[in-house]
Write a structure and sequence with these properties.
The structure is a single chain. The protein is an alpha+beta fold. The protein has a single domain, classed as Phosphoribosyl-AMP cyclohydrolase (Ubiquitin-like (UB roll)), CATH 3.10.20.810. It is 16% helix and 33% strand. Strands 2-1-6-5 form a four-stranded mixed beta sheet, covered by helices on one side. It has a two-stranded antiparallel ribbon with strand order 3-4. The longest helix is centred in the middle third of the chain and has 10 residues, at 49-58. The protein is globular, with a radius of gyration of 15 Å. The two termini are 20 Å apart.
Length: 140
């Protein structure tokens, strides 16, 4: 099922995601991750207090994986670390923006046609009737 979701062309939006995040038992904030040089959004993730503390201390993006229920140091297995440039807080103090510079090839765990991790998790667009289309630029 994961492959169908990540590589398929049929829209399978997970409208239950926030319920799953709430059920993981952690106090979390959403984190938008943006490339410092291109301003491209790479991923949306979640951080608990420990993840934010580690991010600020180590200057590398750290998140809380709500699906694995554990701390997730982006790049620890792939080498695609996201080096922290800045952390911003929204007006209501209920979400964060990590501004980063990718150290490796990409910010996404999925791979493009070249076998390398994609730069951004936003590599498809909805074109209508529940069909997804690949963004043809460098995101593939």
């Amino acid at each position: 099922m994961s492959h169908e979701i990540e590589e398929g062309i049929v829209e399978r939006l997970d409208f239950d995601k926030l319920g799953k995040v709430a059920a993981c038992g952690q106090a979390l904030l959403p984190v938008v991750v943006q490339h410092a040089d291109t301003q491209e959004v790479l991923v949306v993730a979640y951080a608990n207090r420990e993840a934010l503390t580690r991010t600020l201390k180590d200057r590398v993006a750290v998140f809380w994986s709500s699906s694995r229920n554990e701390l997730w140091i982006k790049g620890a297995t792939s080498g695609d670390y996201l080096d922290l440039v800045d952390v911003r807080v929204n007006c209501e103090q209920n979400s964060l923006l990590y501004i980063v510079r990718p150290r490796g090839v990409g910010g996404c765990h999925t791979k493009g046609a070249d076998g390398k991790n994609r730069m951004s998790c936003y590599y498809r667009r909805i074109v209508g009737d529940g069909i997804l289309d690949w963004v043809k630029e460098r995101l593939q």
